[in-house]
């Protein structure tokens, strides 16, 4: 049965070892190569999740930072030169700057699911180890262009670094925005929106999610193409930033256009007594914005049981906020609108409606509560103004509103 003699056995053994060694070496080389690639790929795909990857310098090709014009994050550990332990090469400290920089353009190719997931990420450590200037996200939900853009351009002038703009317009809109405009490159990936339908809520959530990608955005304002500001930037900025409350209008209305739109199929998540109505034009903070993009439970209930004649955009947020986040909500909106003429649409303002007295009235026509005190400033925005009103708004507006 002995097939090999002693000598042959040794030779066989020797070659087997060589073979195993060679195989191991080959596997090692392939694995190293493969891992390098994977590592590099991972890093490319998720720069947001793995910001302080120590191996970046080793694996990434020449790194081209994306320059942003509207963020100013100054790292507290300032940009002093630090020397690395290994080779004493001097490198400039980057810290979190790449991680915190929002993309220059609002466009991306994330799906809605990917976007909402990413927007729902919240740091568990509350205190930031860097200084940043909080910004207001102005989110325009439009059909086509931002009709009153010239007025908004005047409004934003001189306040760079304190705001970010996002525009959600119908996908069919193919107009262009001049490079010099503050609206240039601010259009987000958009989908078809139908008035009064669920797609309106989807668009609102899409706007919020896009705005949440920028950590500096701390307040979120939803506007339409026919909205105008009623005060100058600094007044609006301070009002929003200092507020202890969020502004989602919510009220309980008896009758067909209120409780009449409720469906018992929404039980047990939504009871009739919890059903609320309100304007879709909100002003909220980051905490509530994250909750809204993260909500699946109520969103699904509304998607299933609040269809066309229900007008989910007038009920979803008021109801959700009143059930879960009412403690910090003021139940009012800062966007003035006139429903006095009746019908399903509010009054529109044309050229002749715009007078100095009318604008003054909008700025100071009511009283309300703000941070526990009464105030005359109850509305910061107003709708609905047509393009025909633009030339008069441009003439009186900046002076009455004390634009700088
Ligand atoms: C940067 O940090 C160094 C040392 O920590 C400090 O001496 C210097 O004053 C700082 N510079 C600024 C501009 O904060
Ligand atoms: C950013 O900060 C630098 C210095 O800290 C300042 O010179 C610059 O004007 C700031 N930019 C903006 C947009 O605020
Ligand atoms: C833009 O859309 C309109 C119709 O909505 C069409 O007539 C026009 O040709 C389009 N323009 C471009 C440049 O695609
Ligand atoms: C907002 O808060 C700041 C700092 O707390 C304060 O200086 C400022 O007066 C407040 N503004 C208003 C309008 O309450
Ligand atoms: C807002 O509405 C909720 C629920 O309807 C209520 O509990 C809360 O007290 C209201 N808040 C204010 C400030 O009126
Ligand atoms: C607002 O209106 C009230 C009374 O209508 C008036 O006393 C007050 O001076 C007005 N405030 C401003 C800033 O115009
Ligand atoms: C903004 O308007 C307020 C009055 O509403 C005024 O006191 C303030 O000076 C204005 N700010 C600027 C920067 O013009």
From TrEMBL:
The keyword Transmembrane helix applies. Its main location: membrane. It is a single-pass type II membrane protein. InterPro entries: BC10-like, Glyco_trans_14. It comes from the Eukaryota. Keywords: Glycoprotein, Glycosyltransferase, Membrane, Transferase, Transmembrane, Transmembrane helix. It is found in: Membrane. GO terms for cellular component: membrane. The keyword Chloroplast does not apply. Pfam families: Branch (PF02485). The chain crosses the membrane at residues 12-35. GO terms for molecular function: glycosyltransferase activity. This is Glycosyl transferase, family 14. It comes from Lupinus luteus (European yellow lupine). The lineage of its organism: Eukaryota, Viridiplantae, Streptophyta, Embryophyta, Tracheophyta.
């Amino acid at each position: 049965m002995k097939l090999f003699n002693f000598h042959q056995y040794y030779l066989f053994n020797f070659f087997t070892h060589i073979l195993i060694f060679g195989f191991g070496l080959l596997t090692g080389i392939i694995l190293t190569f493969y891992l390098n690639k994977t590592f590099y790929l991972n890093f490319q795909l998720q720069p947001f999740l793995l910001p302080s990857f120590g191996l970046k310098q080793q694996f990434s090709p020449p790194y081209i930072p994306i320059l942003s014009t509207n963020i100013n994050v100054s790292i507290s550990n300032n940009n002093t030169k630090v020397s690395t332990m290994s080779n004493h090469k001097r490198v400039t400290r980057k810290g979190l700057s790449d991680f915190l920089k929002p993309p220059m353009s609002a466009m991306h190719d994330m799906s809605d699911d990917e976007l909402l997931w990413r927007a729902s990420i919240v740091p568990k450590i509350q205190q930031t180890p860097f200084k940043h200037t909080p910004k207001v996200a102005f989110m325009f939900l439009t059909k086509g262009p931002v009709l009153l853009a010239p007025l908004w351009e005047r409004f934003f002038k001189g306040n760079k670094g304190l705001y970010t703009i996002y525009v959600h317009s119908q996908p069919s809109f193919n107009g262009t925005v001049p490079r010099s405009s503050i609206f240039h490159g601010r259009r987000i990936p958009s989908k078809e929106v139908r008035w009064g339908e669920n797609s309106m809520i989807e668009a609102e959530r899409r706007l919020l999610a896009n705005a949440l990608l920028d950590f500096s955005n701390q307040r979120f304002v939803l506007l339409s193409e026919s909205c105008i500001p009623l005060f100058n930037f600094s007044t609006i900025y301070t009002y929003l930033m200092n507020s202890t409350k969020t502004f989602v209008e919510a009220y309980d209305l008896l009758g067909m256009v209120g409780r009449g739109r409720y469906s018992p199929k929404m039980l047990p998540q939504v009871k009739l007594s919890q059903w609320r109505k309100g304007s879709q034009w909100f002003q909220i903070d980051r905490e509530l914005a994250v909750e809204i993009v993260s909500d699946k439970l109520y969103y699904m209930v509304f998607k299933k049981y609040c269809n066309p004649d229900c007008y989910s955009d007038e009920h979803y947020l008021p109801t959700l906020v009143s059930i879960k986040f009412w403690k910090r909500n003021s139940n009012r909106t800062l966007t003035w609108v006139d429903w006095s003429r009746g019908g399903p649409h509010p009054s529109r303002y044309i050229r002749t409606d715009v007078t100095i007295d009318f604008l003054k009235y909008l700025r100071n026509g009511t009283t309300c509560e703000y941070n526990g005190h009464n105030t005359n400033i109850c509305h910061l925005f107003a709708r609905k103004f047509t393009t025909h009103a633009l030339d008069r708004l441009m003439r009186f507006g900046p002076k009455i509103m004390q634009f700088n």
